Amino acid sequence: MDSFIDLTAADGHRLKAWRDGPEGADPGKTPGLVVVQEIFGVNGHMRNVCARFAAAGYAVVAPALFDRAERGVELGYTADDVARGRDLRAKVSDAAVMLDIDAAALALGGRAKLGIVGYCWGGTIAWWGATRTRHFQAACGWYGGGIAGTRTEAPHCPVQLHFGEKDSGIPLSDVELIRAAQPAVEIFVYPGAQHGFGCDERGSFSAPDARLAQERTLAFLGRTLMG
C-alpha cells in the first residue's frame, strides 16, 4: 500500500508522509516503523528504503520533514542538491521536526510495537526519537552527525548506531564520545566507509557495508519489535 498520505502535527501543520507496508495486516500484530529522511527529502531512494522495510514485515511511515520549509522536495545528490538540502534543513527547527515525528508515530497507532530508523539528518532524529519521545521501543541511526552533540540525553528504548570510519563530517573522536556517554548503546563502525555509505545513489555508497548494516538493523529490529 505504498502511497503518500496526509498527517497533521500537534501545532496544526499539515505534511505529507510516504506509507508502505503489508496490505491487510493486523495492526495489533504488525510492528510499525518511522523512517526518517536524509537532507534530500522523501525522494526515490528513501521510498526504496521504506519498501525494503515493508518487505521485511513492517508498516512504514516516512514523514516529509521539509514540508515546513517547502513542499514536495525531492533532491538528488549533486553538490548543488547538498547545498539546497542544508539550506532547507536550517529552516526547520528541531522542535518542529519532533512534532512531525510525533505525527508519524501517531499515524502508526495501534501497533504492538513501534521503531524509528533514520539516515544522515534522520540518523540524529532517530536518536532524538529515543531520547525526546516515548513512542518507540527501538531506535536505529545511520551516520547521524548531530548525535555527538546530544550524546548525554537519556534514551528510553534500545538504540543501535552505525558510522563510517572515513566519514568526513563525523570524526571517530565523536563516535568515541558517544560510546563513552552511552555504554549501553550498540555502535558499529565500518572500516573505510564514508558518509552516506548506505545510499546506492551516492558516490560514497559501499555495497558490502550497506548490506551488513542493513542485516544488523533488521536483526536489531527483529529482537526489539518482532519478539
Entry keywords:
6 helices; alpha/beta; Rossmann fold; 227 residues
Q: Order of helices and strands, N to C? A: EEEHEHHEHEEHEH
Mean residue pLDDT: 96
- Provide the CATH superfamily: Alpha/Beta hydrolase fold, catalytic domain
Number of structural domains: 1
Shape: globular
| CATH class descriptor name | Alpha Beta
Write up this protein:
The chain is of the alpha/beta class. The protein has a single domain, classed as Alpha/Beta hydrolase fold, catalytic domain (Rossmann fold). The protein has six helices and eight strands. The protein has helices spanning 44-55, 79-90, 94-107, 121-132, 172-181, 207-226; strands at residues 3-8, 14-20, 32-36, 59-63, 114-119, 138-142, 159-164, 186-190. The chain has an eight-stranded mixed β-sheet with strand order 1-2-4-3-5-6-7-8, sandwiched between helices. A hairpin with a 5-residue loop joins strand 1 (3-8) and strand 2 (14-20). The mean pLDDT is 96.
Task: Summarize the helices and strands and which ones pair or pack.
Elements: E1 3-8, E2 14-20, E3 32-36, H1 44-55, E4 59-63, H2 79-90, H3 94-107, E5 114-119, H4 121-132, E6 138-142, E7 159-164, H5 172-181, E8 186-190, H6 207-226
Parallel strand pairs: 3-4, 3-5, 5-6, 6-7, 7-8
Antiparallel strand pairs: 1-2, 2-4
Please sum up the structure shown.
The chain is of the alpha/beta class.
